[in-house]
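Quick review question:
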């Protein structure tokens, strides 16, 4: 497939990164680099084609119905709690690796590509303070976190649309696509009336067509809208009932003071939908069709500390691979038990020794937390 002319750089890079299956990561331990001997455990999780589950206490892979603490499916990690499982496992970020990113939050390719499992081991072996809060898992949208496409004004309490953000969206049927952006959004959180207004625009590539349509279709609140969930079928350009329709493609809604976009996929619906995650609209608008890479579309899922604090970057220096940032997470076996076991954990790679992707390696060890100094 020729990626050179028909798609903007952001889409090309995302697609290539998600389809990369080889090459390995250059963050592995070099043969001539001395290893630091420690008592941490390490496990490769074969998560290329299914969700796999790990018990940190025993260091063994277990069934979903077993006693697990973390789970992985390719790039996605979750803990056994909340929306992800029936356990009470919780997590917290303890080492953010801020030096891996510039002032704008973009990956620093030089730092990423020169970091190794050995050079970043000190962050796993440090002394850790107890976090202010522990995080259990909740809903994770294929569109990304709500703050990627909207902005909260702390002075007014009103949430509005972010600028220059767009998405590629796959329909519930899985055979049509759209280029979508949030044009307008208004959620006055302090007034108790829910979402008051929104406008989403879709350039639709109908089933069997090879290009996005030239006339956008618009998703706006229906006449009887009460500020909660609303669903849209972009193929028919119609608002549909979220509870009874099987062909809705995008849902707008809120829960408490959280607001979301959902796709008809994964934990949100029985359809074959999905979304690309946020892309800049300025580049997305230059693409005239769906890129034809199914792996580009994520499904709605669950997540928490791992989804809020990504553990990797991709396509650094033009190399379409996954690079870990070696962030250190704290994983607590039982969020409600002050004496529960806590582990420090890093995700240190995404490839096996043959360069096959979807094989993340984690390493961890039990730690005693220090109380924060007041």
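Suggested answer, residue by residue:
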């Amino acid at each position: 497939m020729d990626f050179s002319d028909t798609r903007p750089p952001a889409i090309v890079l995302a697609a290539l990164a998600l389809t990369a299956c080889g090459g390995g990561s250059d963050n592995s331990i070099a043969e001539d680099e001395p290893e630091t001997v420690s008592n941490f455990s390490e496990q490769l999780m074969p998560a290329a084609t299914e969700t796999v589950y790990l018990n940190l206490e025993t260091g063994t892979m277990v069934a979903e119905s077993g006693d697990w603490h973390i789970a992985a499916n390719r790039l996605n990690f979750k803990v056994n709690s909340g929306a992800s499982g029936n356990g009470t496992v919780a997590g917290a970020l303890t080492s953010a690796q801020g030096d891996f990113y510039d002032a704008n939050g973009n990956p620093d390719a030089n730092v990423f590509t020169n970091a190794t499992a050995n050079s970043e081991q000190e962050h796993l072996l440090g002394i850790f303070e107890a976090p202010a809060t522990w995080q259990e898992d909740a809903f994770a949208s294929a569109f990304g976190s709500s703050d990627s496409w909207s902005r909260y004004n702390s002075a007014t309490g009103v949430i509005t649309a972010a600028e220059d953000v767009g998405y590629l969206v796959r329909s519930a049927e899985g055979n049509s696509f759209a280029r979508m952006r949030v044009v307008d959004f208004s959620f006055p959180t302090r007034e108790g009336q829910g979402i008051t207004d929104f406008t989403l625009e879709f350039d639709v590539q109908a089933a069997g067509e090879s290009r996005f349509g030239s006339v956008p279709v618009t998703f706006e609140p229906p006449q009887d809208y009460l500020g909660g969930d609303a669903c849209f079928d972009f193929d028919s350009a119609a608002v549909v009932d979220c509870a009874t329709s099987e062909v809705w493609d995008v849902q707008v809604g809120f829960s408490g003071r959280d607001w979301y976009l959902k796709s008809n996929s994964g934990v949100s619906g029985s359809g074959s939908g999905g979304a690309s995650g946020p892309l800049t609209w300025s580049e997305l608008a230059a693409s005239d069709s769906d890129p034809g890479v199914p792996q580009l579309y994520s499904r709605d899922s669950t997540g928490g500390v791992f989804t809020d604090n990504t553990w990797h970057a991709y396509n650094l220096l033009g190399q379409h691979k996954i690079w870990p940032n070696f962030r250190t997470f704290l994983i607590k076996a039982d969020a409600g038990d002050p004496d529960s076991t806590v582990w420090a954990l890093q995700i240190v790679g995404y490839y096996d020794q043959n360069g096959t992707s979807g094989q993340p390696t984690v390493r961890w060890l039990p730690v005693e937390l220090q109380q924060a100094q007041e």
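Why it works: Residues 1-37 have pLDDT under 50 and may be disordered. The chain has two domains: 9-137+304-366, 142-299.
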